């Protein structure tokens, strides 16, 4: 009986060892999946940040190349940034239309008009995504 007890004890130890190893593998796989998901989420977040801040370059370019005086540029920029205050999509649409009208009537160069519209659309897209 002593041999049988020893064999049973050894068998239990081996089974527990396999169980522990299987648990360790499952935890390792879960950690790897979580790490992969975190990397995917981080990449998506970085892309979103890049997309949402792309218009900053346009602002610098406009500031350097504008033919408008400070007051005119401030009025246009205020109209553009008013889009960010929209409480709903209809208001955002109205404010965007007003900003684009102001941009097109400002007498700016075609390149700066395009840059200003890019900024306005960037803000509009961000705002409507949050509504």
Your description of this structure?
This protein is an all-alpha fold and 131 residues long. It folds into two domains: 1-53; 54-130. 86% of the residues lie in helices and 0% in strands. It contains five helices and no strands. It has helices spanning 2-53, 55-65, 70-82, 89-104, 110-130. α2 (55-65) runs antiparallel to α5 (110-130). The mean pLDDT is 88.
pLDDT below 50 for ≥5 consecutive residues: which ranges?
none
Number of strands: 0
The best one-word shape is: rod-shaped
The radius of gyration over CA amounts to 30 Å
Helix content: over 70%
Tally of helical runs: 5
Beta content comes to under 5%
**Series of secondary-structure elements, N-terminal to C-terminal:** HHHHH
Coarse structural class:
mainly alpha
Q: What is the count of structural domains? A: 2
Oligomer: single chain
Ends apart, CA distance between termini: 76 Å
| Biggest β-sheet description | none
What number is the mean pLDDT?
Answer: 88
Short description:
It is built from 5 helices and no strands. By secondary structure, it is mainly alpha-helical. The mean pLDDT is 88.
Question: Can you lay out the helices and strands and say which pair or pack?
Answer:
Blueprint: H1 2-53, H2 55-65, H3 70-82, H4 89-104, H5 110-130
